[in-house]
Amino acid sequence: MSDDVDQCPSTPAGSPVDGYGCSSEQRDNDNDGVYDSADLCGLTEAGATVDQDGCADAQKDDDGDGVKNDVDLCPGTEPISVIDVNGCSDSQLDDDQDQIFNNIDVCPATPIGEMPNSEGCSASQLDDDMDTVNNADDLCPMTDVNPSLDVDGCVASQRDTDLDGVTDKDDDCPNTNSTSISDDDGCALEQLDSDNDGVNDLEDDFPLDALESKDTDGDGVPDRKDAYPGDATKTKAEVEEQGTGMWVWTAVAVLVLGILAGLGMMKRNSDMIEKVSPFTQQVTQQGQEETQLLQEAPAERQEWEENGVKWSRSPEGTLYYYDAQSEQWIEYQQ
User: Fold this and answer.
1) Would the pTM of this model clear 0.85, i.e. be above it?
2) Residue ranges of the domains in the chain?
């Protein structure tokens, strides 16, 4: 080629040239700064940054996933992986942002902010006891499911609705007041009527006596039998006892007067017959001795029961009542 038309006058001998006399070692058709002989990407867009091979990111696919580097959001995709339009496989994605990649995330839609387990599931996505209530809302996490299951994931054997310390399954009184003390069956005194008299045990002064329920003065005597229902120091039994005592003392007084009168008559008779017969004197003396023995003989202790209360009076006249709790006789203080 003549020099007047040769744009590449120093072409190496034997090199193929184009119509301008230039070989590939002298040409750069895409103007990327890499001669065509070394340019692996001959049609690089103008202005694109290229590597030493003359290739821009838009022309390369380093991980071979079919998505060019300039639009590949996951540049290190494993070979033969299924990818999305962004060049990412499930092992490179975390759609719910729970730090567990999609390919091992059992719960792919974990709510933002909830702590997942190693499988990518949070408490709101799990139901360990399979009671249809998720772990986050389940107040009883190890439920043995039965028809008594409630919205909190608890059955009767796990619930204590009235907070009395007895589960609903064993609670005979499920609505015990929170301020009351309950028994092993979950019942407080105000929920029981042990004697079935229609008065609850809390208000029944005689909870085991169906015929009685009120003792206003707390003296152990029912109001309907108590002559003084408002005075714990007096009872009907005392009144009756006082009446009985008066009769006893009256009888004693009559007896004593009779004995004294008899002694007086015996004295006069003795004076009259003292000189008549020694035998008569002996009989008189024997009668006097018998009278003296009668007077000196100790009285016996008296016991009786009045209105369910056992009473006793000593020979000296002291009144006692029997305390069943201590199993002792207690002196009655008037």
Assistant:
1) no
2) 1-48, 235-297, 298-334
